[in-house]
Structures
1.
Amino acid sequence: MRRLVTMLLIATSAVASVQAADVRRLPVKEYRDKMKAGWLGQMAGVAWGAPTEFKWKGDIIPADKMPKWVPETVNGSFRQDDLYVDMTFLHTLEVHGLDVSIRQAGIDFANSGYRLWHANKAGRDALRQGIAPPDSGHPQFNKHADDIDYQIEADFAGLVSPGLPNSVIALGEKFGRLMNYGDGLYGGQFVGGMYAEAFFEKDPVKLVAAGLRCIPEGSQYAECVHDVLAWYREKPEDWEATWQRINGKYHKNPAYRRASCDKGDFNIDAKINGAYIVMGLLYGKGDLDQSIVISTRCGQDSDCNPSSAAGVLFTTLGFSRVPDRFKEKLDEQTYWSHTSYNFPKLIDACEKVARQAVVKAGGKIEKDVSGDEVFVLPIAKPVPGKLEQCWEPGPIAGSKFTAEEMARIKPPQEAPRQSTRVDLNEALAKFAPGWMIKDCGADMLPGIRDELGKKNVLVTHPLSETMPCVLGRRVDILPDKKTTLHLVVGHHPDGDWVLRVSAERQLVHKVIGKETAPDGWTSIDVDLSEYAGRIVTLQLTNEANGWSYEAAYWAKIEIE
């Protein structure tokens, strides 16, 4: 009898061990902490790399051209499509639930009002013309189907699917097919798979392997990632040598650009940009700064790639363990462009969807001995979709929106690109007393910089392509003294802007850029003697000149 009881206890223990091995447990508090970090990493990576985007195509970005990180940089992400398109899909899940149809997802995307490019634009254009998904992402209707688009927007799929790779794959089949196909789709499922595993794993090699398990092995995308892993193992300390091999095979070899929308130096194909995400993770070796820097310096889409790499890596740490330099200046109240989300609302929306994902995957939500909730997550082998490639696509689905569905597609007219206003009057009062500022845009982190080629520099930016930032003040011009407005102004190394100085009439109209300020700075003296004995309003405007790096650098604004 004693032997029978012992055997039963052993058997019961063995069953319990098997059951325990079939699940992973994740406290909901820990889930939120890691998921918050995932979004923060995206913000940090995209904002840090933004000034370099597509400035280097087929070249490594020189180390001295890498922007400097300052804690305020993180807030440069609120107008980045790398984030707000991502949130469009999250919002669809929040409103309609995890079982939302692909057709509803397509209608929501068709009704978005922001500017788009490449696969996103082609997919949305097709949706608005009545071509329903998945055909909106099929190469017959979308000549950009192998581009990077879903890869840069799939972060949400991993962040709402902790430890659930098949949830990531399914979300890709629903949202990735709105605009992508083949390797373009697989890029998003690969990135999402890394996020899902990052809730439990920190080793970059294992994270990359987890992403690979979510996509078909026979794809060129999988081949590319396998190549990067192999080349990393050969030269684990020389990322530039691996970069050269990637560039040779996946940029210069036409066999790996068969569906590229552009065959020249510009390369927005998902494969090569995915390789640069992997480069940051592997060669960064867990260092946050180095991972972002390496992924950025690889070039091409050098803000989206470090955003994905940093998002995965930050997830492994959790928000509470991310160094203060990445979060101490985080603006939690500003809303992302074209969304209903600020940072706290974004986190709550993700948790809401994640709870559904856990249950749908066969998991459950329990409480531990302290009464805190815990996700109990089933361990399941990823099941990728069937192999498809854009240059040999399968048949279309023949999917079209019904008349009733088309009546629900009412996209808003796209507004001209416009930034959020920032109030710099307090800073300006210290920099140039008596002056006031209006319509300063939030791009390029306006404010006072201690060092920017000169000491104590005021940075401003136009509000939009058509609305300048304006500095002004009333000045009493004395009748018996020569009065001069003295300006020292500069520009971003990769941009220029238009300076206008007015006092009842235009006194100066000058482009401030490399031709007029070749060393980055120029001095301008404006004689105000014609206004002697009068009170006039001076206006200095920072106007756009092509909408690329339009920040004005002000080292001096003085009336002498």
2.
Amino acid sequence: MPKFSKDISIVVGGAAGQGVQTVEAALVRILKDAGYGVSACKEYMSRVRGGSNSVQIRLSSARVPRRAYIRRIDFLLALDAPALEHLRWRIGEGTTVFAEKASADMGGICRFIDTPMLRFAMEAGGNPIYANSAALGVILGVIGIPSEEAETYLTKVFSRKGDDIVEKNIEALRKGHAFGKHAAYAENIEVPLVPDDGKKDDLLVDGTTALGIGAIAGGCDFISSYPMSPATGVLAFLAQNAKRCGIVVDQAEDEISAINAGLGASYAGARAMVTTSGGGFDLMQEGVSLAGMIETPIVIHIGQRPGPATGLPTRTEQGDLNLALYSGHGEFSRAIFAPGNPAEAIGSMERAFDTADAYQIPVFILSDQYFLDAVSTIDSKEIVRLPIRRNIVKTQAEYLRYALTTDGLSPRGVPGYGDGLVCVDSDEHDESGHITESFEVRRAMMDKRSRRLDALRDEAVIPHAFDNLEGAETAVVSWGSNRGVVEESLTRLGSRKLGGLHFSQVFPINPAVETLLSGKRIIVVENNHSGQFADLLVRELGVKVSRRILKSTGEPFCVEELMDELEPEA
């Protein structure tokens, strides 16, 4: 009899167009509403139809859901034969596979249950498309959740398509549910996880939504972008909420126009942002340099995916840290955030707008495909609303836009707010904003623009130290989306020798980090080929990185493989 002590891993696989993501969306919502801790992630090929895609849903009784990708599959629902082959490397003795027997050859490596989802679909609606609703019913039947919960969901989702479509989906669901319930009884499958009514009020968000919420909370009132996956979702979220949140949305003709429109809006006093991926950001770099010269705030979200060039457009990577760090010709200050969970995403986006506004610089938010698409429940208490600090001054007649100051920050005015002239120029300029080629003025302006970096370092977010860092011999360092996999791997290893340190701000680095890492052996975990953040730690802190655990295949780390890498250190 399969036993599940802490969490269950459910995977649904099939071709693009078979409704794999429809099953995921329904499952996470229904399971959350039932009171379970839920997280989910997906992997998909860059094609509209065909291929082999999958989603993983982790179900737990824990108040805080496990938010990491794992290799283990407890229940696999395969909607076609290629899904079984695609996921074969993750199937083991503990896996129960629900699939059409005619298309399966598992060689006795797992528990296999012949599941006629196609037949259920044809009986319910005369079309294979209803197989995803049958699959949903199978899972809920095995877990023991009444079909009525799903029927309400399907009615809401498909109501716009008419009563006939709703009824056919519900009939397929019921057939699958009856089958799953019977299979659980016949195969003696028990799911002893206990739901918690207190979790029903938790929020269910993905990384995209969390960043969008953070942008709204940070005062964003202008976004200009050209769509590019995986970052397009942030643009779409803000567009959907534009009217009630007072946001001007501009879908530009290209990325060059997008960042220049953002800078124009910021010059006029808006809190502006752009969102793109690495290839699109390449076109924005002249605009980033312009922001540095005219000292105009802008928030830039980069949804990372593997390059070079088009690379793997629907896969994940942390390969654009150097791109953000060194983008734009010339030298000027900047800040870079890289959140690792939904609460951090909201807070980091708020800080990004606040930092850009306060220091008059470009500020980057780095995410990646895995993080943007991953869904999890979150307690609303985890969200901290930060105050919005406005730094625009009312100008006087003698106002100087680029006045030299001891802290490197000139008072920022905007056109029409006061009597002063707000003159900006992409050429080197004097305090009034007029072009100059004076070497003395050039030296003073370069010093002024770089001087604010000291304050940025002192205000940088101190990385999150996991409970096991103090007293550990080795610090396992992560940034961005690897927070969950490092945290769970260290918890499961349970070694006092290993501690974790997660960075949600990767540049500049707070000087306090030196104390946190003092005397420890340092291992850096990141999804790129060379170890870009490890290089940055060495450059900024002068520390020695003993080992780099890297992955650049386009897949996220899974807990089991990271545990294998860290076990010799434990």
3.
Amino acid sequence: MLTSGSSNDSTAPTPTPVTVSVGTQPVRVVLLYRRTCALEERLVWALERHLIREGFAVFIDRHLAMGVNWAAEIEAQIRTADAVVPLISAVSAISEMLCFEVENAHETAQSQKGRPKLFPVRVGFTGGLPEPLAGILDPIQYLLWEDKDDDTGVAEALTNLLRAMASAKPAVRLVPSKGLRLVPRPAVQPVPRIPFRVSEERPLEPLSLEAIGGAVALTSEFYITRSADTELRTALVRNDSIILVKGGRQIGKTSMLARGLQFARERGAKVALTDFQKFNASNLESVGSFYLSLAESISDQLELKVLPSDTWDEKRGPNVNFERFMRKEVLGHLNAPLVWGLDEVDRLFVCSYASEVFGLFRSWHNERALDPSGPWSGLTLAIAYATEAHLFITDMNQSPFNVGTRLSLDDFDRSQLKDLNKRYGSPLSTDDELERFHVLIEGHPFLSRRSLHQMATKKPSLADFETEAARDEGIFGDHLRRILVLLAKDHGLTDALRAVLKGQACPTPESFYRLRSAGVISGSSQQDARLRCQLYATYLSRHLL
């Protein structure tokens, strides 16, 4: 990944930087890797040396001090790059920071006509990727490095892929920035593409995320049941029209939703799941393409015989087409109730047509109340989201977010932490240690599981763990740096968090809700806003104050 290091790194190539004018235009390449992974570090050095020699402008973060300025520079380098090359090993595949950087590059490319282009390199690893990394990188062929003898071959293959991309590169003026080596690009003749260990499509082995993040597997012994789980099952038994699952980032919404859907299956319902994290720019481009993507996904999951495109009639309009498809082709042909899970719904809030979509969902709820025996009586929408809907939806009377059953997920309480500790073999051996741990983590589900896994496997003392936890290169380095990059995108949000760190109220309702939905702060109002846990307070105070 992009990491901070010393400018005296003796292993890095050090050609003399030059000013680039309009006439030279080297391709800007950002290399992403996990610094603590020895395989990735030696390969990134080999790739950097080769690409610079071939005339590319290469950026690897070795020279910037950690902080908000560092985070802003990382975001800027990815945004202005022509190509981003993520190195994916078994270690970096589960890196929060690398995932965030790849997401950033992917989202930027969708708004910048395909730039930067992603060129993944697998480093001794062909296993499955977690979401959202899988949704972005699985469709892309990757280069595969297997041992040190592959250094040159991978570097040459990557060079040829970048040259092929550059052949259609429009003329732009490049401005050198700190940490970026710009070297004149030599005249290059078109080179045939070299298929060096380029992957063919193949089934990928599942990657176990049991201990370190992502959705908790249905078979996991480490899933902690909370009151919201029971409320979800009760709502499904009642066949409720709309079930709202709300909670901040990494609190367990996806894992709880998965268990609710499995419960529905076991009760005989048909189940479909739409994860909006997997939708790309073309899916979200317009309300028409959005509805068609939804219909195709549902049709595929339910194995319907009819294709949505066969029933679509542009003269009817997008809303009518989708509603008609759901009523006639889905609900009209199922011999069981349908529970439709919608995860990461926040992505729709910023779409221009969001109110139209949510208004349609609300109309189904209303029609069900007016006609209990009608087709909509067989549909339950289970909607998981983090952001306050009222920040984006102007008419809440046309929204599904103020009707139905509302479930709120909270962090683990002390008894749940004690239960989780026991499942990990009780690495925290006394009530005093459990209390100190709770003060540090405050029941944050992801941090709790990650911490207890570390203590159960590496066996550090709690005192050593407390010292290590908030370090930039510590166990939570990826997780904490991700927050800095998030804040670097919005100076207003950074200032709001500084106020909270100083013990003041959150300045505006919007900043309070946004920071809370991002999982950075907790509290029920602007006045009682506080950092979500002591770990965040320690780390962010060091970098922001």
4.
Amino acid sequence: MTSIENTAQLSAVANAASARRFTLAIYAATLFFSALLIFAIQPMFTKMVLPKLGGAPSVWSVAMVVFQAALFLGYLYAHLLARLLTPGRAAIVHLLFLAVVAASLPLSIANGFGTPPEYGVTLWLVGLFFTSIGLPFMALAASAPLLQSWFTATGHKQAANPYVLYAASNLGSFTALIAYPFVIEPLLSLQTQISFWSAGFSALAVLISVAACFAIGREVDAPRHDAQMGARPTTSQCLRWTALAAIPSALVIAVTAYISTDLAAAPFLWVLPLALYLLTFVAVFRERPWINHATVQRLLPYGVAPLAISAFGGDKVFWFVIIALNIFVFVLIALCCHGEAYRTRPHRGRLTEFYLWISFGGALGGVFAGLIAPNVFNNTYEYPILLAAALLVLPGMFKSGWPRFLRDAGPGLFAAAALGAIGIAFDPQALIGELPQTAFAVFLVGLVALMLFNTRRPARYFGLIVLALVVTRLWQPGAGRITTVRSFFGVHQVVETTDRSHYILYHGTTIHGAMRVRDEAGNPALGTPEPLTYYYFGGPISEAIEAARGWRGKLGEIAVVGLGTGSLACHRREGEQWTFFEIDPEVVRIARDPKLFRFLSACAPSALTVLGDARLTLAAKPGQYDLIVLDAFSSDAIPVHLLTREAFAGYLSHLTPHGVIVAHVSNRHMELVSVVGAVGAAEGLTAYAKQDRAANDFAHDYRANAIVVALARDSADLGDLPSRNGWQPVAKRNVTAWTDDYSNLLGAIYRRKFGD
């Protein structure tokens, strides 16, 4: 061999070694970027959909189901490519798929999805997501298992355990989800986000091409046979992987619904549980996990015990602590399940098969929590069911077989079943009587102590957890439940106060109206009901309506966005035609049932009720209104799409030349006066606001302080409102008017907490 040939050979070897040094970095970067795109599309596209459907937490829940189903289809496609084709041929097919997807960009809502139907919204939304972004999501989802599969063929020294690359993938997902609410959403308009995403998709195709080159030519054993792929997993192993993936996948939806119902239906809250869920993969899919698997298993019982007695709480005074506890336990469960899945992972030759079962479990969990549970349960029962199911993966639970498990767990499970049967047949609170809250709290503390005392006996601990969940669901001190209903838009409860004097409507933990049902002597309250909570006579909402009516003498057509209990109906005067726009059919049923609330039947029996999203139904309804009352924001889960310039332009097109818009913007966590003021100013409106301070004893008179903004084209149209006590022009602040393309919820939260 000549010296030239030797030099060439040595150079080739050196180049190959150099290339292998960069192999891991290229694959990790490609997986990171792919995941970054896939999890940027989730909050971004969901934000695009909100103007069509409103701000219900269930929008995100259904979106999660679609994303998990698309993830499974992407993993199935990747599994088939890896089993049937060499890396080189698989790369060609996948790049062609990416090219087809790129031709359909930019992302947009598919044609044919206009106004949502009154019923069957869930299936309509599933169709919208799949049709609009199903293919891009599948193409991106397939990249993770495909790239890990190709990495095993590169000859890299770490190719023996390609599972560690999954950490890079989930780190990209986590980065996207955290960056979206804190960087992307506040700084970039929606259209700019879409443009950047399309450019990123093209860049990813280039990275995938480069990564494939490292595997091409080294596929001498592909397609591979079972002998080179490790033992085929048993059916029980596959089912176990499915269950380990399904539990945290379902919990991420349940926990998200819990948080977003208590705060706001907004991407910045939706992404928090999902980001933590993904971070658990990063933490455990590695040779040296961030936290030892055994430590997680030991900690889990100590977190679930206090959560079990608070999962069905009523008013959450210490809401931040309870939310933090829920998130903490959720992370422990996800770490436990994902750590167990990684511990039992198969040979690298079965990698795509393993991920296929994991994604299948994720899809099943999503379907259960996002589609089945809301249509089967009238409350969020899926949450405690999943908490209990998560405990079954604890070590030693079935160590001695089913007979021993049933012996240990039996007493708690039997007691829970007996109480459940009694609760179905009778009212448990009526049977027990009015137990003092202190006594019940002492009982719960004792139950928690008993659970913690049995953490080393997992089956007995499991039975006690189930018992605690049943007890706290059946009996809650402080109020008696009259009825509970669940819809796509949340859980509604009508409760009777402890003194049996009032009925109160709750949506989640937010009060949506109250009515006196008995007088001080305990007799049924008769006659015209008096509006309470934010709507009491003399409050700022009442003042705004009276001022709009004042200089005219009377109003003609009035539109009210948001129904609640129908309290505003009792502000109606003779000759006025009131129309209520309500998105939730269950709210309409409750408000129109005189056995529950009599505001509509007593004060406005001829009032029209239009079902559907107000932004769409109000735009579709002919005619103009002298007064439009926006009362969809008293809940903390605010529909952002009703506060944008596009929304206000629609209101103005249906407002008479001298009409008035009254926006009720009371909110525990967000400052919305400046948002409404900025939008109003952008649309040429003058705005006055008032923060009520007169109602200070809700427990006594059931009146609540309201924050209200009144807007008109001319201040004269507001009558004497500007001169009334407490009404001030909305001050100009450094707040950008919200649009369908831009909103900044974090800014609203910051102002509510810290002011300017």
